[in-house]
Write a structure and sequence with these properties.
This protein is mostly helical and about 160 residues long. The protein is about 70% helix and about 5% strand. It has one domain (about 1-125). The chain has helices at about 1-10, 10-15, 20-75, 80-120; strands at about 145-150, 155-160. Strand 1 and strand 2 (about 155-160) form a beta hairpin. The chain is elongated and about 105 Å long.
Length: about 160
């Protein structure tokens, strides 16, 4: 999104330097890269959800199998088996919420690490290199200045002034 805002803000300079095609391809490469990253994120997210759901269902199946085996052996009644199944059903929602919380915590940790990486980088613009105050007195002298409309191939309107 920042790249798009930068393109729109610098549209006049882009047109002036005849760099529309170059900037468009740069933007398309950025968008394609973002798409690939998004697809990888969705694939990882889907694997995490599938793994958590598989473990949860495997837990339910194992507990029900052991309870059913105990009913067959006569050490549990069918009522206790139904109670166990009810309790398992009631536990599924909190377990799923716990898994979602862990996933959200992982996402927050990754985001915090990325923000820290950006914060640790040096500024792209060096404030010491900027001219903040213009001298109050002084002449401005330009030598060898040329100007042309259009792109680099167009004729010069002003030459070597």
């Amino acid at each position: 999104q920042g790249k798009l805002i930068e393109l729109i803000g610098g549209m006049q300079e882009i047109k002036l330097h005849n760099a529309e095609t170059q900037k468009r391809w740069e933007w398309e490469r950025t968008e394609a890269k973002l798409f690939r990253v998004g697809m990888r994120y969705l694939a990882v997210d889907q694997r995490q959800r599938l793994g958590a759901q598989l473990l949860n269902e495997l837990k339910n199946i194992l507990i029900i199998v052991f309870a059913a085996k105990a009913v067959i052996e006569g050490s549990l009644t069918i009522g206790v088996l139904l109670a166990v199944m009810y309790i398992l059903g009631q536990l599924n929602a909190p377990i799923n919420q716990l898994v979602e919380f862990i996933k959200s915590a992982q996402d927050a940790k990754i985001s915090l690490e990325r923000m820290n990486e950006i914060h640790q980088r040096e500024n792209e613009e060096n404030p010491a290199e900027k001219i903040t105050i213009l001298p109050e007195v002084g002449d401005l002298r330009l030598e060898g200045v040329s100007f042309q409309y259009g792109g680099p191939g167009s004729p010069l309107i002003l030459k070597e002034l």
